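Morning F.,

Quick status update on the modeling queue. The single chain you submitted on Monday has been processed. Sequence for confirmation:
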Amino acid sequence: MKRIKLAGLLAAGIPLAMAIGAYASGKDDKAKPTSGFAQLIPLVGEWEGTSGNGSPVKLTYTLVSNGTALMERMEPSKEAEMITMYSADGDRIVVTHYCSAGNQPQMQTAALSGPTKKFDFTLVRVTGLRSPEEGHMVRLVLMMVDKDHLTQEWTFEQNGKAQSDVFRYTRKN
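Structure tokens below.
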């Protein structure tokens, strides 16, 4: 009788041990990003550059949330820092820009079907606006020139008028 109970416990314990082992081994695995998002991962690191008016700007890209989101920290020399979060949404890339203007534009690319060096984000919606005329970002064009050079063109709209600013960056590390 004791052998039957022990055999039953061992038989029940083997699948449990296998399940625990599978969970534990998968815990450190990175989530697999979609191909469009995966193309942004080489941005990870520190970048230095200038805005259109020549002011210095620092960018830092960090892969977060188990590899499923890319956080950009922009530190312009003459204004407050801003955070932009990039993530995959099917075959598109979406961004939420936490602007120093106090609002949060959400933009996305068109469907991406292959390799690209140019990511064109257009406005989907914006939260935190007090009125539709209040200034907010409406477009971001990110161009990966090569592994050590990056260009961003941000378009800001206020009172129905759009103005773009081009930032040019070089990899620091």
